[in-house]
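fold description:
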Amino acid sequence: MSDLPGIVVTGVSGRMGRMLAEVITASGKARLAGAVVRSGHDWIGRDLGTCFGTAPMGVTVTDDPLTAFAGAKAVIDFTTPAATLAFAKIAAQARCVHVIGTTGFEKEQIEALAPASRHCAQIRAGNMSLGVNLLTVLTRKVAEALDAEWDVEIVEAHHNRKVDAPSGTALMLGEAAAAGRGISLEENRESGRDGITGARKPGAIGFSSIRGGDIVGEHDVIFATAGERIVLRHIATDRAIFARGALKAALWGLDRKPGQYDMMDVLGL
């Protein structure tokens, strides 16, 4: 098993972190080489399996990403924008593939990721699932085919602990619709309507966010015009689909030159 490529999971104490650790360990395609948490976390220095309440896994939890990354081929990172920016610099130093599933970036933060990609393969996506990336392709194709009389609305739903809105996936779908229309999403985005907003702006791409319970992820792209609607939908019921996609991205990135990639590249879409 030691000849399998080693992968580090950051934010391993979170729901996605745990799922990633479990998927990597069970895959037979990679080994879990490190588990990183924030400084001060009470898991530091303990075996990860013990922290999970299962059998020991032989991986000691650490808050030292530099040491963890140095012994690995790839890093999978579903944390926060600020943490991801710090991890990007360390991944570049270690020449590790950096798979980024973190969402909620500001434009300037996304731009700040670029320098690190000159030294390692950096794969970032708002969503790692095959189904969502196919939905993204379909959204762009439909937007290309329909004229501006068709309004575009994106509705997303997630669990009540999600901290950013709209979701990274919703924004990815919005970018696809904007690209199909040949317009800028930044200049045509409408989010958080409330009160007397006036009539809908022609050509706008609207976003609505729902938060509740344990919803894993649901996304609808609605194209509406007088007398008819087209609805493209993806429903995720198991977080493991994102972990499997992230693992696929990490393994794909091992053979790539430094640069920025996304799941469209990984999936050949």
In short: The chain has a mean pLDDT of 95. The first strand starts at residue 6 and ends at 10. The domain at 130-236 is CATH 3.30.360.10 (Dihydrodipicolinate Reductase; domain 2).
